[in-house]
Amino acid sequence: MNPRAEIDELESALLERAKALAAEYMAQAESERQRIIAEANDRLQLREEREILAAKAASERAFRRRMQAAEIKEQEELDRLRWSLVRNVMERLQRQLAVIVADDRKYLPLLARYLARASAAIEGDGLIAEVNAQDHARLAAKWDAFCREAGIGKHLVLAPDPLACVGGVRVRNADDTVRVDNTFEGRLERMQDVIHQAVTERLFAAAAHRGALFDG
Known about the structure:
Layout: H1 3-101, H2 104-121, E1 127-130, H3 133-139, H4 143-149, E2 156-158, E3 168-172, E4 179-183, H5 184-190, H6 192-200, H7 207-215
Parallel strand pairs: 1-2
Antiparallel strand pairs: 1-3, 3-4
């Protein structure tokens, strides 16, 4: 083989080798590209999943905050409504009490029961009864007879100064160390919890409570 042919053969072999190496490098480069793309996709998917989870968590927190705010607002509305109803009930009771006080046939027997129970609750004798100005004018001239009719077996005097109240009576001992407040205001105050519970449960027609107020 002449030198020229040898050179052509060597160049051809080198060219084929170069083509083979180029194809191998291209295949490796494509494989690496695919790996990089796959890793990038995995990272992107993981990032998207994290962002979705973070968005869901933020959405849940925002939803809970809105729910809590709505619940607080609803509770405030319920509280305002409950107290409004309590005030309405108290106003109605005050009007009913005024009607009772104006009716001697109903009020005087009730006052006698209040007086007898308050007197019985205080030990000893020599008690003092306090009533409002209207009742003082009603009873001052017939106080002893009123006490006897009420079944009071103790010495009970009528205080000279009237008490500021709608009706009822307050009884105390001589040194004013023990008092039993059977005025309407005192009994209403003691029944505040019962009235609030009744209003909360929407039991406006609770005749038992009114009976406890007037007779209990």
